[in-house]
Amino acid sequence: LRYHKRTFKCHVWIALSVFDFVRNVFEAPLEIDAIFYGKYRLSIECSVIGYCSKFLELSSIGMLTVIVGERYISICHPGMLIRYYGKRAFSFTCVSFCIFYAAFWSFMPFFGIGEFVNHGEYCYLQNITKPSVVFMYKLSLLAFAVLLPVFILFYCSILTLREFKQAKERTINVFGNVYLANDCQKEEKEALLLIIMTVIMALTWVSYYTIHLVLANHAINKKVIFTGEIFSQLTTVSTPFFLILTDKGFKATLSRVFLRIFHKISFKTKRHVTVTSTQLFKINKNIKEKKYSSQYTSRVGKFTRHSEIEMDHKIQFEDVMRNVTK
């Protein structure tokens, strides 16, 4: 069960999550304006705002699905990944498919279907000209762009958790290796945490899209819209925590940064330690001896390894011959 690096997709996902968060920050005043007045104050960038919002939301969900799905394949079916695809080709295919999938579902505001629709001089929150088409569009978004990725996340996380449980039992009962069992237990905890976060994300996204389905059906209420925006902000803020809690590389970089900061602070607060001349002479002598021994072993290391292997074989052969003669 080797850990598969996924730095490229994680960096893309971080960028999408950050852009989605920035988009929500700039879009929040417009949505608050729509809550109280029912329409936005601008109409030129209406379809552009609608496209960017949907693209960032769906691409961030899809990229997280790609990361978890590739982790499941690399852990549970590593031979299939190498035999049929290759790691780089599979990663590039998944990322490109995720981007094109999000772009396809986000093009509807350019055709006058979606949350941000031009009507006269204003940009309305809901489509007042085609309510039935908007309802079908929202329903298809909920099915194919939210529920399907959430189901893949949940399925892959459960199977990965089961694989790590079986690996932990095998390493303890068959091999008796405690260190591998501890590694499997850590991975098991991370998979369980991913399942919990997936359930939380599913609840927030489903409730958010359900509220917009109610909006598309003309059941307009200020409290309902405000609740939907709260769920949207919660999902946007909570998605980057997936990477912090489940990715080893990201946690390692964070720990290095905190350790460096702590080391600098502790180094500044340390007292000055006096060292005598004899202690300095001994330290320099030890350093020179270690350098000379490391250089000597690097040169003669090949011959010493072969001689040690030959001696081991001789000792084993002598033991076998003694047992035979007895």
From TrEMBL:
GO terms for cellular component: membrane. Its main location: membrane. The keyword Lyase does not apply. PROSITE patterns: G_PROTEIN_RECEP_F1_2. Pfam families: 7tm_1. It is found in: Membrane. GO terms for molecular function: G protein-coupled receptor activity. This is Opsin.
